[in-house]
Design a protein that fits this description.
This protein is α/β, with parallel strands linked by helices and 504 residues long. It has a single domain, classed as TIM Barrel (Alpha-Beta Barrel). Helix content is 38%, strand content 14%. Helix 17 links the parallel strand 11 and strand 12. Helix 17 packs parallel to helix 18. It is globular, with a radius of gyration of 21 Å. 58% of the residues are buried.
């Protein structure tokens, strides 16, 4: 899932000077709650009171990630991942939590499928742990790791649930990190080999695949901000990892298609609708720059073989872009996965900031979280129109691609009452309103095929540990007991009736 990344632009500015590079963008405030920003106009939110019916065959699902739920971090030949190393390093994770056990889904996957069946779901987005397949990031496949995912896929198909497989959800083998990780071009080749192994093992049954989950998040948070694994804080590493990941995305696409030409292949991109803080031309331009770095930094190379035009600063030597590389980044994705939680309010810097950085290559933008809508327990603004806006923008600008909502959700830490029930009405309202917005975008021409709530289970939420609960099912982490929340029961009715609205 996606965590706050609005320190991103500020980090680039500071790191640019340290690296002797021109600044690309100016600073952002660093927190969704940092600064109240008023958009140019207050958008009207959507209501499901009149009912929204989704297309026939629509996929209703949930999403998870291997490190966040599996546990069994060193069982059955699994190698160490960068998240194993990072979580075992002091002062990296809130409360000293780790994913060593997480939701114990490596052993309790049958219980998790039973939850999905109870919720009437027909799609499950989960990820494969690269070091569970290749403990050192290269070589032959680990048979026990392959067997685990093979059993999971078979059981999902038996339950009439589509396996939507994410090939990389942030758990790089530590051995590859030791060799340079995503800043090393060789990692793109290693990734393609891993993809080939998985496709050969599961491609006879799995038809729908995601290459990456949120490449901008793991490149930024892991290499520039240092708040996620592997914990680097370097502009150079961020820029170099950006390009290697774009090369790997395309290499993985080609490797999968070589094994299974008929496979449907996409990537899950984290996105936010980027609104100008005012109607000024400067803020409108800032919003375009925010969109470029937030939403299409890894999409443009795949579909158009270039980095976004709104960010013309491109230190090719520093990024180690070689002749012919941009053609190699092309990957004609079969669908675009969108992970969306909130919106961004973008503005140009003030006069003093402009004076300090006034050069022709400067691309100034400040990014803040919206403040008008209600907040989740994580402090994120609930703003359904953000989903409507981004789905229609991607639809317009990329020739009406097939889209799947691969994540959307909210953290509310409601616990069981005296009877053991979890009454999380705010989560029900969140999904109802976001689905109403999604339904409107479909009515206006977007080709959206599915919606995956984050998440099936309360789980290990990266640097936040177990402090934030996003699940439709409550997990008692001491006993591993799962309990479907009110939101999960509500979602089961939505999936069964393929609609939201009166009576739901």
């Amino acid at each position: 899932m996606r965590l706050t990344r609005r320190k991103f632009v500020q980090s680039i500015l500071g790191a640019s000077a340290a690296a002797g590079l021109p600044a690309v963008l100016s600073g952002c405030s660093g927190s969704p709650k940092a600064r109240t920003a008023t958009p140019a106009s207050a958008p009207v939110q959507f209501s499901s009171s009149s009912g929204v019916v989704f297309p026939k065959g629509f996929f209703w699902g949930t999403a998870t990630a291997a490190y966040q739920i599996e546990g069994a971090w060193n069982e059955d030949g699994k190698g160490e991942s960068i998240w194993d190393r990072f979580a075992h390093t002091s002062d990296k994770i809130k409360n000293g939590d780790t994913g060593d056990v997480a939701c114990d889904s490596y052993h309790r996957w049958r219980e998790d499928i039973a939850l999905m069946r109870a919720m009437n779901l027909n799609s499950y987005r989960f990820s494969i742990s690269w070091p569970r397949i290749q403990p050192s990031g290269s070589g032959a496949a680990n048979a026990k790791g392959v067997d685990y995912y093979s059993r999971l896929v078979d059981a999902l198909l038996e339950a009439h649930i589509r396996p939507l497989v994410t090939l990389y959800h942030w758990d790089l083998p530590q051995a590859l990190e030791d060799a340079g990780g995503w800043t090393n071009r060789d990692t793109a080749a290693r990734f393609a080999e891993y993809v080939q192994l998985v496709a050969q093992a599961l491609g006879d049954r799995v038809t729908d695949w995601m290459i990456f989950n949120e490449p901008d998040a793991f490149v930024d948070l892991g290499h520039l901000e240092g708040t996620h694994a592997p914990g680097r804080k370097s502009l150079l590493d961020f820029l170099r990892a950006t390009h290697v990941v774009n090369l790997a995305q395309a290499a993985g696409f080609r490797a999968l298609k070589a094994v299974r030409p008929s496979a449907r292949v996409g990537t899950a991109f984290s996105m936010s609708a980027c609104e100008p803080a005012t109607d000024s031309e400067e803020d409108k331009l800032a919003a375009e720059r925010a969109h470029a770095i937030t939403n299409i930094w890894f999409l443009e190379p795949a579909l158009r073989g270039r980095y976004p035009e709104a960010l013309t600063f491109l230190p090719e030597t520093v990024m180690r872009i070689k002749a012919g590389d941009m053609e190699k980044t092309r990957a004609p994705l079969d669908f675009i996965g969108i992970n969306l939680y909130y919106r961004i309010i973008a503005s140009a810097p003030g006069a003093l900031e402009r004076a300090a950085h006034a050069q022709e290559w400067l691309f100034p933008v400040k990014m803040d979280g919206g403040q008008q809508g209600p907040k989740t327990d994580f402090g994120w603004e609930v703003w359904p129109k953000a989903l409507y806006d981004i789905v229609l923008r991607i639809t317009r600008e990329y020739n009406r691609p097939v889209i799947e909502i691969t994540e959307s959700g909210c953290s509310y830490n409601d616990g069981p009452d005296a009877s053991g029930a979890i009454h999380d009405s705010r989560r029900v309202a969140y999904h109802r309103e976001y689905l109403a917005a999604l339904g409107r975008s479909i009515a206006e021409g977007a080709d959206v095929r599915g919606y995956h709530a984050w998440s099936l289970l309360d789980n290990f939420e990266w640097a936040e540990g177990f402090s934030q609960r996003f699940g439709l099912a409550y997990v008692d982490f001491k006993t591993q007991k799962r309990t479907i929340k009110d939101s999960g029961h509500w979602y089961s009715k939505v999936a069964a009736e393929n609609r939201v609205g009166p009576g739901l």
